[in-house]
Amino acid sequence: xxxxxxxxxxxxxxxxxxxxxxxxxxxxxxxxxxxxxxxxxxxxxxxxxxxxxxxxxxxxxxxxxxxxxxxxxxxxxxxxxxxxxxxxxxxxxxxxxxxxxxxxxxxxxxxxxxxxxxxxxxxxxxxxxxxxxxxxxxxxxxxxxxxxxxxxxxxxxxxxxxxxxxxxxxxxxxxxxxxxxxxxxxxxxxxxxxxxxxxxxxxxxxxxxxxxxxxxxxxxxxxxxxxxxxxxxxxxxxxxxxxxxxxxxxxxxxxxxxxxxxxxxxxxxxxxxxxxxxxxxxxxxxxxxxxxxxxxxxxxxxxxxxxxxxxxxxxxxxxxxxxxxxxxxxxxxxxxxxxxxxxxxxxxxxxxxxxxxxxxxxxxxxxxxxxxxxxxxxxxxxxxxxxxxxxxxxxxxxxxxxxxxxxxxxxxxxxxxxxxxxxxxxxxxxxxxxxxxxxxxxxxxxxxxxxxxxxxxxxxxxxxxxxxxxxxxxxxxxxxxxxxxxxxxxxxxxxxxxxxxxxxxxxxxxxxxxxxxxxxxxxxxxxxxxxxxxxxxxxxxxxxxxxxxxxxxxxxxxxxxxxxxxxxxxxxxxx
Length: 575
What we know:
This protein is an alpha+beta fold. It has helices at residues 14-20, 26-46, 119-122, 187-195, 259-278, 285-295, 298-328, 337-356, 361-381, 401-404, 407-437, 443-458, 464-473, 481-500, 505-527, 552-574, and strands at residues 69-77, 91-99, 109-115, 128-135, 152-158, 160-164, 203-207, 210-216, 226-228, 239-240, 248-257, 382-387, 394-399. The protein folds into three domains: 61-166 and 199-223, no CATH class; 224-295, no CATH class; 303-531, no CATH class. It starts with 13 loop residues before the first helix and ends with a helix. It is a multi-pass membrane protein. Its main location: membrane.
């Protein structure tokens, strides 16, 4: 029907969840739709073609009047052209006295039937719905003697959709287990697809269980506009056609629709197409956005949009202060240099994982910029030099004096030593589990997916060395607190999303693990007093700050004292 019943969202696989978290989220998608709608309005308003005034007698008008009763016939055929109006088997639905463009209890008609597919339809065949309308009492068959061309019209709509086969069907168990997925290709074809990734694109035929026919409340056209509304027909509602399908359910509906709502649906679909062509929206993201409107509470949806705007603002402020901190930082005393290097490695793993999973270029660009920024931080935390002594130039990293000449390096190495043991055990355990129970495209994909999953699950371990350094130094004056404050606010927002939005439990767990780390940071800030002798993030100590400017009276008094001193000195020289 026009709004199909919402289904529960299944938990995504870990690989998909990792890639999905790199997208911009619900707020960015909504902002993109609004931006496209506003742009279309002003473009059509100010830059559209100027139409010459038309005489009133030449204006196009609808042949059907508002509220005029109409009859409807719907036929099913495997051909896109239809002329067999006398075939009773092809006629699946007939309605009479449907009022045109008015909203009354009789304006909406529904019908449900069971269709038994033919062998041709099971093997990528086609099926079309031929819908015809006429004035009440008039036939739609052109061969009928009472047929009038101005009193009948019709439209054709495909019932079968052809969608690209997901690449997930090419994944396999690397250990050669027998329980393969149902979409696995024959062994010979599988081998060819592995040897050559870029083969012919495969498509699968899907049955559309809902067909909604809307008569648009538009009287500027010659005939009434028939709109086949598939806006709320999500992909997971479609049924894959194959030889095992015995019967199919078809839900039919005919109802009126306002011109504003009709144009809104068209503009949103056009916006989705533009985003997909630019790579800013992946296949399936439009359905997830529609699902939010179908399943979500409208008040909760409005709150989510507002909170998403704040989340984007705090992300920008945290990024801005992070760049400012490392750009002005002159001392690595109290900061973990090894954590900076590990953050770069984690960001690089995520980038390679997204590249292996055919992510959109906008997400790849965003992740690539993050990799470059993390490498730039290494240059601020350590001395990076190019070693040209060998045949191949190599990068050489050397600790800064402010990091190596105090206890910071010792504490950092001690913390990383024990945490590395824990991290390696967790990574090895998860990699073995993924190899045994999950399916992958190749060994390279298995390594990347295992490393990426460990980054998301155990990434909080990378923050623990800084906690250990703070504990040993009994100070937090070196921390970038402004940046961490914005990140903590974003963590609180993520906690809200974890309760109101369906997401994989692994991602939900990662949200609350960050809360624990930040709460420990706040506890350390409260416990350890401010040490004015210790340098801050900009390399200055509290005792190094310049003195406050003197008042005018104080300056005058100082000048008088200085003048008296000079006079006394000159008198002594004269004597």
